[in-house]
Amino acid sequence: MPDVMNLLERLLHQTAVRHRVLASNIANVDTPNYRAKDIVFSGVLGEEMRIAATDPKHIQPAASSSGNGSVTNEESQLWADKNNVELDQEVAKMTQNAMLFEAGVTLLKRRIQMFKNALKTS
Questions:
Q1: How far is residue 32's CA from residue 82's CA, in Å, rounded to a whole number?
Q2: Kind and range of the H or E element at 42?
Q3: Helix (H, G, I), strand (E, B), or coil: what is residue 100?
Q4: Is-contact 109 72, C-beta < 8 A?
Q5: How many structural domains does the chain have?
Q6: What single-letter DSSP state applies at residue 64?
Q7: I need a labelling partner for 56 at 20 to 30 A (CA). Which of 28, 45, 90, 119 fits?
Q8: pTM of the model
Q9: CA 44, CA 67: separation in Å to the nearest integer?
Q10: 57 lies in some domain
Q11: Residue 120 Cα distances to 66, 109, 112, 115, 117, angstroms
């Protein structure tokens, strides 16, 4: 079993990095020749985050392609100014990323509260 605290720390770090990348995309929505960037999360946190398919009817997770957590350029159709940032997609990604961050913070708070409760009773 992986160390949950370290896993949550890595999750929060990765979501913070992705937030900066997505914010940069939004800031450059009108910049000519700017290419949108993103962070590929698959594999960033390792096998600890992989959901196990316990039944043959379960959907199998896709194989991770470039899951090293590095910033990648997104390949999508270019606008007339050779910019490929789509504001609505970037806002949706940022919202999803924020929800993942909040879930990580909530889990971390609960984990810390468990330790506090254990110290009070001992």
A1: 6
A2: none
A3: helix
A4: no
A5: 1
A6: P
A7: 45
A8: 0.72
A9: 5
A10: no
A11: 45, 16, 13, 9, 5
